[in-house]
Amino acid sequence: MAFYREIRSAGDVSGFVEGCGREVERLGSALGGWPIEAVRLGGHKKPAVIIKAGSHASEIAGVHAALTLVEEGIDTDNEVWIIPCGDPFGFDGYRRALEHAAGRPVQLENDTECLAELERLGRRFYNEEHFALFDVNGIVFCWADQERFDARSLFYGRMDTLARQDPRLAGEIAGKRIFYPNAVYYGGEGQGPFDHGGLVSLVSPLGWVNNMNGFFDRCFAPPEIASVRAFCERLRPGLALDLHESCINTRIAASVIASGESIGDNFLILPPVHAPRFEEVETPVAEAMLEGTRQAGHECFSRSHLEASWGYDETEYFPGYVRRDSRGASSFFKWVVLFADASIVVEPRMDRPCADRVKIHTAAVRAGIARYTGLTGGGR
Ligand SMILES: [Zn+2]
Questions:
Q1: CB of 217 within 8 A of CB of 332?
Q2: pLDDT confidence of residue 325
Q3: Which neighbouring-strand residues pair with 200?
Q4: Is the model's pLDDT at 238 over the cut of 90?
Q5: What's the average model confidence in pLDDT over 50-56?
Q6: Cα(367) to centroid of ligand 1, in Å?
Q7: Is there a single domain that holds both residue 132 and residue 82?
Q8: Quick one: what percent of the chain has pLDDT higher than 70?
Q9: Does residue 262 sit in the same domain as residue 362?
C-alpha cells in the first residue's frame, strides 16, 4: 500500500508492470516512447472486465490502486485486464515533459526558475497578466505566477474558451499538448507543481481544447486513446471500470480548506447511454461498489454536495452516483458502452490522503467485480 511513495514516474510504472510476473500486453506507445500496457488478472471466463486508470494524469491514486490490484490479484473467474496508466507522459509530469522537449535536464524549483528555463528553451507566443505560453519543440508549457493565479483553471475549461475567442492562439496550440503547473491543493504528500501527476490538455487539429480522456469518439485520437480503443474492440469487455478522482472546483476547494469541513463526495459516474442490460447488470454492480466503499470505511456523496461542487443540475441522480448527460461519447466510460453491460467511473475525493483514495478504488473495484461475476456466471 506504499506505492504512492515509490511510484513517481512513468518509468516507475512500467518497471513495476514489467516486473510483476503476470501476463502483460503492450497495446501501443505513448508520447515519450512509454508503453501503454495491460496486465492480465482473474480467470478465463468471459465476459472480460477492463479496468483503466490514469486517464487524467493528475489523478494519481487510480494508478496506485491499479498497481495494488496487479500486485494483490483479484479473486474472480472472469478474465480481467488492467491498464494502470492511460497517459504515461502526463503522469511523468511537467518537469520531465520539459526535459523531454528540451533534450536535457532542467531546473524547476519555483516559478522564477521555470520562467527562466522556458525563456531559454522555447518561444513565448501568448501573454496574460499572470501566465504565459511557450512552445518548446512542439509541446506547449504554461508558465504561471502561482502566487496570484491557479493555472488549473486553464485546464478546467478556460484554455478552451480563450482558444475559441482567439484564432491565432488556436492556431498556435492546434494538435499539441499543454502542460500546466499542477498546484494540487490537497494531499500534503510532497507533490509539487512540476512533479509527477501532470495537468495536461490535448488540443484538436482545429484548436479546441479538452483533457486526454476526451478523444475516444474522435478519428484523430492520440496513440494513448487509439491503442485502448483497438484493445477493447478485440476484448469486447462486459464490465468497464474507470478510476478517476473528484477534484472539487477551486471556489469550493478554498472554502472547504478554510472551514476544515468535509463535503463527502466520493461517488460513481455512470454513462448516459447504456447497454440493454443496464438495469439487471449496471445498477446492481454500482450498488455493490458503493456498499464496498462504505464497508471500507468511506462515505459516498450526498446530492446537495454534488450539486454544489459539480453543478450537475441537468443530470439524473441516484443515491451515491450520478448519470451524466453531457458531451457525447467523448470519454472512455461513455465510449466503452459499445461493448459493456456496465461502465462505471470511480471518483474518490482528491483532498483525502492518497492511501485512502487507493483504498476506495480497490474496495469499489473488488466489490463491483464480485457482483458482476455473480450476475454473469461466466457468460452472457
Ligand atoms: Zn478524471
A1: no
A2: 54
A3: 179
A4: yes
A5: 96
A6: 21
A7: no
A8: 82
A9: yes
Identify whether 111 is part of a domain.
yes
**98 and 173 in a common domain:** yes
Average pLDDT, the chain: 86
Expressed in angstroms and rounded, the spacing between residue 361 Cα and the centre of ligand 1 is 13
Does 175 lie in the same domain as 275?
A: no
Q: Give the residue numbers spanning the domain of 295.
A: 3-90+239-376
C-alpha cell at 314: 441537468
**246 CA → ligand 1 middle, Å:** 7
The pLDDT score that the predictor gives to residue 229 is 97
DSSP, res 246: B
Model confidence at 310, pLDDT cuts 50, 70, 90, reads low
Q: How large is the angle between the packed helices 283-295 and 354-376, nearest 10 degrees? A: 140
224 lies in some domain = no
Give residue 186's pLDDT band: very low, low, confident or very high (50, 70, 90): low
**Span of 65-74, 167-176, 295-304 with lowest mean pLDDT:** 295-304
Indicate the length of the chain as a whole number.
Answer: 380
The least confident of 179-183, 202-206, 312-316 is: 312-316
Ligand 1 centroid to residue 293 C-alpha, Å: 18
Q: Reply yes or no on whether the pLDDT at 150 is more than 90.
A: no
Residue 195 lies in a domain: no
71 plus 104 within the same structural domain: no
Per-residue pLDDT at 304: 55
HSE value, Cβ hemisphere, 13 Å, CA-based, for 274:
21
Domain containing 31 — which CATH number? 3.40.630.10
On whether residue 117 sits in a domain, the answer given is yes
Distance 275 CA to ligand 1 centre (A): 23
**Count of structural domains within the chain:** 2
- Give the distance (Å) from ligand 1 centre to CA of residue 50: 17
Question: 180-216: b or e for each residue (b if 16 or more CB lie within 10 Å)?
Answer: bbbbbbbbeeebbbbbbbbbbbbbbeebbbbbbbbbb
- The predicted pLDDT at position 313 comes to 46
What's the gap in Å between 243 CA and the centre of ligand 1?
Answer: 8
Same domain, 101 and 74: no
The cell for 17 is 508492470
Residues 99 and 82 in one domain: no
Residue 260 Cα to ligand 1 middle (Å): 24
* Ligand 1 ion: Cβ-proximal residues, 5 Å cutoff: 56, 59, 244
First and final C-alpha spacing in the chain: 35
pLDDT over threshold 80, residue 270: no
Do residue 254 and residue 359 come from a single domain?
yes
